[in-house]
């Protein structure tokens, strides 16, 4: 328990269209966190995150009707690579190990949706590195990550992008980490979430 917040009262779930009302709060929380850290961040629009929710490619945490945390999934290189991105916990709910719960569910969701894709992360945060390691990520060189230019353009908003440019994109302040699904057992996720994913994907065909 932290203050008047009980950990068991925070729900972590796969986001759906009903959660779009939280998007502006999510964007504001991400922006404020980036200012505190003194780093840049890839800019995302309201519609971008709302689409992630509609397509079952995002995870949200709620304390009752109050926003507590969020993360989403992006695919790169024709879905050969996946990232779990935008992990954020509202300041009011920090210190409750909520980031790990969100990370774990987003990671599992990515593995279910793209079981053969490699999941990677670029981070300078020790806490995220630790969570990644616990999930089976290993440190790698940037050459082992996607060469999709759309992904690397996301680094342009970071204050350290000059390092990335000077090194010819070989390394930067962030550490590259990679999860190879061929080295691990299949992931599991609740049947009701799987059913929703199947319905979304079948509507696209």
Task: Note down, in words, how this protein is organized.
The structure is a single chain. This protein has 205 residues and is α+β, with helices and mostly antiparallel strands. It is 37% helix and 22% strand. The protein is built from seven helices and seven strands. The chain has helices spanning 23-37, 46-54, 98-113, 126-135, 149-153, 161-166, 191-204; strands at residues 10-14, 58-63, 66-76, 81-89, 118-123, 138-140, 175-179. The protein has a seven-stranded mixed sheet, with helices on both faces. A hairpin with a 2-residue loop joins strand 2 (58-63) and strand 3. It is globular. It starts with 9 loop residues before the first strand and ends with a helix. The mean pLDDT is 89.
List keywords for this structure.
205 residues; alpha+beta; 7 strands
**Terminal residue distance:** 46 Å
The global form is globular
Taken in chain order, the helices and strands follow as EHHEEEHEHEHHEH
Count every helix, treating DSSP H or I runs of 4 or more residues as helices. 7
Q: What portion of the residues fall into strands of 2 or more residues?
A: 15-25%
Radius of gyration: 17 Å
- The count of strands amounts to 7
- How are the strands ordered across the major sheet? 1-2-3-4-5-7-6
Kindly state the mean pLDDT as a whole number? 89
Report the oligomer. single chain
**Main beta-sheet annotation:** 7 strands, mixed
Structural class: alpha+beta
Tell me the helix content.
25-40%
């Amino acid at each position: 328990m932290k203050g008047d917040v009980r950990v068991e009262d925070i729900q972590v779930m796969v986001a759906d269209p009903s959660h779009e009302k939280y998007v502006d709060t999510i964007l504001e929380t991400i922006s404020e966190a980036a200012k505190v850290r003194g780093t840049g961040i890839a800019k995302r629009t309201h519609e971008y995150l709302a689409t992630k929710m509609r397509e079952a490619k995002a995870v949200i945490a709620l304390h009752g009707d109050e926003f507590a945390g969020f993360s989403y999934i992006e695919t790169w290189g024709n879905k050969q690579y996946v990232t779990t991105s935008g992990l954020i916990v509202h300041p009011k709910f920090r210190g409750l190990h909520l980031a790990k719960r969100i990370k774990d569910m987003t990671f599992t969701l990515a593995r279910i949706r793209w079981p053969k894709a490699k999941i990677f992360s670029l981070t300078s945060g020790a806490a995220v590195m630790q969570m990644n390691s616990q999930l089976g990520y290993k440190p790698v060189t940037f050459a082992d990550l996607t060469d999709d230019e759309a992904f690397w353009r996301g680094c342009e908003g970071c204050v350290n992008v000059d390092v990335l440019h000077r090194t010819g994109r070989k390394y930067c302040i962030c550490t590259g980490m990679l999860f190879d699904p061929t080295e691990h057992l299949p992931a599991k996720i609740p049947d009701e979430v799987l059913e929703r994913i199947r319905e979304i994907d079948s509507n696209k065909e």
